[in-house]
Write a structure and sequence with these properties.
The protein has 8 helices and 20 strands. By secondary structure, the chain is of the alpha+beta class.
């Protein structure tokens, strides 16, 4: 099988696809868009050949780095590039991806926070078959100072784009931990890494809901409440996360996460949550995740509801709570909007049912009377 990249010793160029890349002041430079076509194993072998060639020509060394530019492709000039924060480095026969992240104003630029960063990245990197080798101070003696992370990745069946994405995710996760600006994805990684305290002070919103204690899964009320919490996110556009073990606090303009209040865990916790949802939520959400994790202060429960296909909606809850009473024969349909939840309206439910019945009977959707009148 042909190599996806090779080094031409005669011309001292790198060849990949139809591209021939010359060596310039910064060395060889890739554009981000070129990475997906280059296998990581081929790249490592090519760089080792390049090191051997340089050594034979009287330029000893065992490290070669490759910069990557993320500028607009139309503006990319490999002779005068604008390198980004991620590089590829081959040394002693191994390939690592490096990522730079700014040091905070209160951090000592010459004391890399290896233990802190390793704790934040541990679960994220493990899921991506990668490890944090070390952190060093970037080569700068004036502010702004940066940390340089060396990340070792499994290269089997991977492209350089795969490795780049892992490093990019590590930067995002560390930046979120340092600044508090969170997304659903980075929040999941922070929780799984045991860094729930980063969420304190964050606002609850369309994709995040917290609860200070376990749902009472010994009662129908508690089981229905859990099913409704999950249904709200399943019926919403972007999914969401329910975290059990955090306390919210009302503030002007909404509600924020006020503190951690870990809950007791045991071997049956996840199964009890699953059982309640299996009996009260239909259909089962795709790729729903329920897991427990530990923080320095104790346990928490995480329920992750990914964005759901429209054809599965609406998600129905078997049972409802009306004026504090459980009505087991009722069906409730709710979705998340902002920091609260709203019921799906009767007209919306009717139009969905009518559309489905029309497709089953006639293979076509019914006309919307209002749109028909507007058209006339």
């Amino acid at each position: 099988m042909p190599k996806t990249i090779r080094y031409d010793r005669r011309t001292q160029t790198l060849r990949f696809g139809t591209t021939e890349r010359d060596y310039h002041d910064l060395g060889y430079v890739f554009h981000r868009s070129e990475l997906s076509a280059i296998k990581a194993a081929d790249y490592r072998a090519t760089m080792m050949n390049l090191i051997d060639a340089w050594s034979s020509d009287g330029h000893p060394g065992n490290i070669v780095s490759m910069y990557v530019s993320e500028e607009d492709l139309g503006e990319f000039d490999d002779a005068n590039p604008r390198p980004g924060p991620i590089e590829f480095e081959v040394s002693d026969g191994s390939l690592a991806v490096t990522a730079e992240i700014p040091a905070g104003p209160e951090e000592d630029p010459f004391e890399p926070p290896m233990e802190i960063f390793a704790g934040i990245l541990q679960h994220y990197l493990r899921r991506h078959r990668a490890t944090l080798r070390d952190i060093s101070s970037a080569e700068s003696f004036t502010a702004p100072f940066t940390w340089k992370l060396h990340i070792d990745c499994s290269i089997r069946s991977r492209t350089l784009e795969d490795l780049y994405s892992i490093a990019s995710g590590a930067i995002t996760l560390l930046s979120a931990a340092k600044s508090g600006e969170l997304t659903r994805e980075t929040t999941l990684d922070l929780l799984r890494a045991g860094n729930a305290e980063v969420l304190v002070g964050q606002q609850e919103g369309p994709w995040l809901d917290v609860k200070s204690s376990h749902y009472d899964l010994d009662s129908p009320h508690g089981k229905i409440s859990l099913a409704q919490a999950v249904a709200r996110f399943a019926n919403a556009e972007h999914g969401g996360i329910v975290v059990v073990g955090m306390r919210g606090k009302k503030v002007p303009g909404g509600e924020v996460i006020h503190s951690l209040c870990p809950v007791p865990l045991n071997a049956g916790t996840v199964r009890r949550y699953q059982g309640a949802l299996e009996h009260h939520l239909y259909p089962p959400p795709d790729f729903l995740e329920i897991e427990t994790f530990m923080t320095p202060r104790g346990g928490m429960v995480l329920v992750h509801v990914p964005p759901q296909p429209e054809e599965l909606k609406p998600f129905l809850v078997h049972g409802s709570v009306v004026d504090g009473r459980v009505e087991g024969a009722f069906i409730s349909i709710v979705r998340r909007r902002g920091e609260g939840s709203i019921p799906i309206t009767a007209p919306a439910i009717h139009s969905t049912l009518a559309a489905g019945r029309a497709l089953l009977r006639r293979g076509q959707l019914p006309k919307d009377p209002q749109n028909s009148e507007d058209a006339s």
